[in-house]
Structures are given as C-alpha cells and as structure tokens.
Amino acid sequence: MPSRPQETAREFVQSFQQGEEKGFNFFFREYYAAMCYFSFQITGDKEAAKEIAGDAFTKLWENRIRFDNASSIKSFLFTVARNASLNKIKLQKRNTQREKEFLYLTSETESSIFEKKIETELYGRIFSMLNTLPPKCRQIFNMLYIQGKSYEEISQELNLSINNIRNQKARGLMLLKQRIAFTIFLILFLELFI
What we know:
This protein is 86% helix and 0% strand. By secondary structure, the chain is an all-alpha fold. The model has no long low-confidence stretch (mean pLDDT 78).
C-alpha cells in the first residue's frame, strides 16, 4: 500500500511528459499555491507573485519532456519562481531609483530654471559689457579673467607695472559693478512682468 503514492506521482509525470492535461493539473494543484506564497515572501506583491507562479508553470510546460520525476519538477518550479522574484525586486529597485532621480531632476530643473536663465543672461551681458570698457582695461580683464594669466605674466607681456595692472583692474571692476547692478535689476524686472 505505501508504494501507491509513488506510482501515482510517476503516472502523473508520464502523463505530464506526454502533454496530457491531467498530468499538468496534478502538478498545478500540488504546487501553484506554494509558488504564489514563495514568490510573495520574496517580492511582497501578491499580483506579481501570481504572475510569477503562472510564468513558472508556463516554463515548466514548455520543458515538460526534460522531467522524469516529481522532485525535479518541484525543484524547477522553485528555481524559476526564485529567480523571477529576485529579478522583479531588482527591477522595482531600478524603477524606484529612476523615479527618485527623475523627481529630483524635474524639481531641480523647475526650481532652478529661472536661476539658470538669469545666470546665462547675466554672463552674456557681462561679456557684452567687457567690450564697453576702455581698451587697456578690457585687455587686462581679458588676460586676467578669460586667459587666466597672472599679474607677472601680464606685466611682462604689456610692459606695465603690476600696480598699473591693479589700477586698471579696479577701474574695470567699478565700471562693471555699476553696469551689472542695473542689468540684474532690469532682468529681474522683465522676468517678473513679462
């Protein structure tokens, strides 16, 4: 009498291998609920767990010829469910990370777009204003701030004293500050009312 369950399982394996519905139904009834529970324990998502269990049985059916005993079927189902559940978690984490990055970028973009626009406009105006400086002052500003040269390098190239270079720089800064203050006011005023 104890040998009867093994014979039954063996019969269902043979039936399953031959593509018979009764063989498939036996293993589905036997393991589907366990697969759902197992996957839910990993993913924490009931709907995903049901989908994963269903997919595991689809893969089992597609590979039915390979299985010659019930324990290999059970092992296959658990392996497929485990891998799919872990992949689901990885995908959820990636999507969550992408959503966080997107929210961060959109909130930063929306909050700073006005600032970036003003900054860009301001730099454009500053470069335009540099062209309105007296020639020697403009040349020194260009060498100091755009070319990144030191006072000593400028002194040698232009044959000017370092003190003269500092005076030209101070004069240029004073002229630019006056013009920039007005420009910032104008940009802010226009942005608020246009």
